[in-house]
């Protein structure tokens, strides 16, 4: 099963200059770890390169069309064909989590069955956005109470695909 995890601002902002536009939110970081630990993450090369390295206790599938990009690590697989890997991941029995960036989110959205979305109640100057989605195709199955941290209020939501149009 394919799912995704993302934190977004009020206008679906996710990034500015290759970074998140908001300060680190510790509860969101804990949430991300809870939802991804022990799972396979699917991400683009730029997203992988923004990480401090291979994340512990998670397998990484990195999509890159750069034929010179390679990463030798026992928990990393580099792939070139995004559509093929999305079809493979969609058919998997285990939960595989799309981890970004924007083009990977956009391409994966038709394949995803679950979305873990942190909604940050603020607007940001951004150059990268999460794609629009048809909320009528989704059911909110879980959400947490709003959290306030670093002067920001945010909330966790889980969406399950209920239909396809």
Could you please describe the fold and organization of this structure?
The strands form two sheets. Strands 1, 3, 4, 5, 6, 7, 9, 10 and 11 form a nine-stranded mixed sheet that branches. This protein has one domain (2-161): Dihydrofolate Reductase, subunit A (3-Layer(aba) Sandwich), CATH 3.40.430. The chain has helices at residues 26-36, 45-50, 82-91, 102-108, and strands at 2-8, 13-15, 40-44, 59-63, 76-79, 96-100, 114-120, 128-129, 138-143, 147-149, 152-161. The model has no long low-confidence stretch (mean pLDDT 95). Helix 2 links the parallel strand 3 (40-44) and strand 4 (59-63). The protein is an alpha/beta fold and 165 residues long. It contains four helices and eleven strands; from the N terminus they run ββαβαββαβαβββββ. The radius of gyration is 15 Å and the shape is globular. The two termini are 19 Å apart.
Helix-strand layout with pairing:
Elements: E1 2-8, E2 13-15, H1 26-36, E3 40-44, H2 45-50, E4 59-63, E5 76-79, H3 82-91, E6 96-100, H4 102-108, E7 114-120, E8 128-129, E9 138-143, E10 147-149, E11 152-161
Parallel strand pairs: 1-6, 1-7, 3-4, 3-6, 4-5
Antiparallel strand pairs: 2-8, 7-11, 9-11, 10-11
List keywords for this structure.
4 helices; 9-stranded mixed sheet; Dihydrofolate Reductase, subunit A
Please give a quick description of this structure.
With 165 residues, the protein is α/β, with parallel strands linked by helices. It is 21% helix and 35% strand. The longest helix is centred in the first third of the chain and has 11 residues, at 26-36.
């Amino acid at each position: 099963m394919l799912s995704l995890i993302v934190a977004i601002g009020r206008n679906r902002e996710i990034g500015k200059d290759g970074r998140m536009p908001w300060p680190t939110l510790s509860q969101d970081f804990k949430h991300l770890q809870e939802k991804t630990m022990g799972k396979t993450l699917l991400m683009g090369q730029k997203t992988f390169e923004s990480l401090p390295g291979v994340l512990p206790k998670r397998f990484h599938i990195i999509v890159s069309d750069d034929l010179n990009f390679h990463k030798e690590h026992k928990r990393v697989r580099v792939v070139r064909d995004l559509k093929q890997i999305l079809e493979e991941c969609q058919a998997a029995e285990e939960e595989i989590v799309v981890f970004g960036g924007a083009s990977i989110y956009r391409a994966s959205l038709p394949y995803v069955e679950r979305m873990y979305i942190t909604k940050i109640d603020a607007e940001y100057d951004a150059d990268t956005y999460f794609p629009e989605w048809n909320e009528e195709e989704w059911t909110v199955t879980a959400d947490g109470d709003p959290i306030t941290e670093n002067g920001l209020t945010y909330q966790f939501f889980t969406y399950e695909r209920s239909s396809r149009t």
